[in-house]
Amino acid sequence: MSVTNLNTAPAKAKPSAQVVTFSAPAKRPAPSQFMRRLSAVAGDIVPPLVTLLVLLVAWEFICSSPTSSLPSPTRVMAESWDLIVHPFYVGQGTDQGMAWHIMASLQRVAVGYAIAAVVGIAMGVLVGQSQWAMKGLDPIFQILRTVPPLAWLPLSLAAFRDGNPSAIFVIFITAVWPVIINTAVGIRNIPQDYQNVAKVLRLNQFEYFAKIMLPAAAPYIFTGLRIGIGLSWLAIVAAEMLIGGVGIGFFIWDAWNSSLISDIIVALIYVGVVGFFLDRFIAFIGRAVTRGTATA
Amino acid sequence: MAKSYLSIELVDKSFERNGQVSEVLKQVSLGVEKGEFISIIGHSGCGKSTLLNLVAGLTKVTSGAVLLENKEVSEPGPERAVVFQNHSLLPWLTVYENVSLAVDKVFSRKKSKAERHDWVMRNLDLVQMTHAKDKKPSEVSGGMKQRVGIARALAMEPKVLLLDEPFGALDALTRAHLQDQVMQIHSKLGNTVLMITHDVDEAVLLSDRIVMMTNGPAARIGEILDVPIARPRNRIELATDRSYLKCREAVLKFLYERHRLVEAA
User: Fold this and answer.
1) Which residues in chain B have Cβ-Cβ distances shorter than 8 Å to A196?
2) Cβ contact B88–A191 (<8 Å)
3) For residue A79, what pLDDT band results from cuts at 50, 70 and 90?
4) Less packed terminus of chain A by CB within 10 Å, N or C?
5) pLDDT higher than threshold 60 for residue B264
6) Nearest chain A residue to B104, by CA
7) B66 near B77, Cβ under 8 Å?
8) Which residues 6+ apart lie within 8 Å of A251 measured at CB?
9) Is the full-model pTM beyond 0.90?
10) What are the residues whose beta carbons fall under 8 Å from the beta carbon of A185, sequence distance 6 or more?
11) How many A/B residue pairs have CB atoms within 8 Å?
C-alpha cells in the first residue's frame, strides 16, 4: 500500500496542496482544540475528585457506627463547624482561629528556612568547590543529617532557653542538609565547558560565582530547597507540639489533650494543604529562576 | 631567526593517572604567522585537541613552550579565544548576553557601555545572528549556537582564534554554510586561526596550511601541507580544481595509507 502511494504522490502533489487550502480546515480545529483542552483539564480534575469522593464515602461508612473511635466526615463537619467557618477568629491566648495558628507556624518556618537556605547554599558552595572542605566536612554532614529533627529540640532549648528560637533552630537544622548536599553536587557538576569559558574570559572569583556557578547549579540548589521546605513543614508540627504557644503543632496537641478529635482532623487537612502549597511555591520560584538552565 | 607570531616549540605533553604516565604529544613544533589559517588534522585520540588546549592555556605543557608574540603562554586568556566543539554557550543567558558577557569582561575599561553594545551587535551581525539576539541558546538551532560561539570568540578580538572541531556536531549542509561564513570573516578580519578538524574537505577548503598529526600515543606532527589555492575560495569551483584535489589526496593518503588508525579499522 504505502509503496504505491509513494509512487503516485509526485503526480498528485499540486492538486492535493490546493485542496488543503480550500476546504477551510483551519477553522474546524479551533473549537475541537478548545474541546480537547477542556477535556484535558477535565481529565486532570475529575480523577482526583472521584477518588476524594470515594475515600470520603468509605470513611463515612467505616466510622459511622456510634462506637467508632474516630469521627466520620459528617461528624467532623458538625463538631468542628466553628473552627471551619471562622479561620480568623481571635480569642484569648492560644484560643485562635486556624489561620492564625498556621500563620504562626509559617512565620517560624520562614525564619528557620531562610537561614537554612542562606547557610546551606554557602556551605554547599564551600563543600562543592574545595576538595579539602569536602573531605573534612562531608563525614560530619553525613552523620549529623541522620539525627532526627526532634532530637535537636532539647539541646536547642538548653541553648536558647526559649521555645520560639528553639523551634526555629529545629527548622533550620532540618532543612539545611538537603540544601548543602544538593548545592555541593550542583557545583561539582558544573560542566567543564563552562569552566573553560570562565577561564578564557579570565573571570575573577566573584564573577565566576555570580555569573557561572550560581546559575549553573541553580537547578540542583532548588531541588535541595524544595526537599528542605518539605522537611521544615514536617518538623514544625512536631516541634510545636513540644514548645507550646500559638502554632498548628500545639493546636493539634491541645486538641488531643481536650479529646477534640474532629479538630485534629481539620488541622491535619490544613497542614496538608499548606505543605502542598509550600512545595509548589518553591517549585514555582525554582522554575522561574532556572528557566532555560535545565536544557542546554 | 625571527620567531613566528605563534610559536609552538618542542612541546611534550604527558598525563599521569594512577601513577601511569601516558605520553600524548612528543616534540611538537609549529610556527604560525599572523593572519594564517592553520588546520590540524588527525585521527581521534591523536592529541590534536590537547595541542589546542595547550595553546589556549587550558592545560599546561610538560616541557617545551608555546609563545605568542614572544611571550610564553601560561594561562588561558581572551587573546586566545576558543570556539568549543559543543558551543558551550551559557544556557541561562540570551544570545546577546552570551556575547556581551565576553565583551563586558574584555573591554570593561577600554570601551564605554554604548560602544560595548555596538561591538556586541557588530559581532552578532558578522555571524548573522542579530535577529535572534534575545533568544536563549535552547531556542536556536545547533548551527546558530555555533555561530554565536564564533561571535563570542571574535568579540574578544583574539590574537589567535582557536577552533576546536567547531562544526563537528553539525549536519553537512549547515557545516558548509558555516565554513563559508568563517572564510568570509577570515578574509574580512584577517584573523590568525588554528582549527582542529577531522574533516579532510574542511581542512583543504579553509586552510593555508594543514598540519597532519601521527597517531598517538606520543603523537607528533607527521607532515605539513601547503594549500596553494588562491582566495577567495569557492567550494563549487574547487570541486574540480586540480590543486584542491591534489591536496585532498595528499591528506587522505597521509591519514589512510601511512597513518591508518588500526583500532578504528
Assistant:
1) 56, 58, 76, 82, 84, 88
2) yes
3) confident
4) N
5) no
6) A201
7) no
8) A94, A98, A101, A263, A267
9) no
10) A128, A220
11) 63
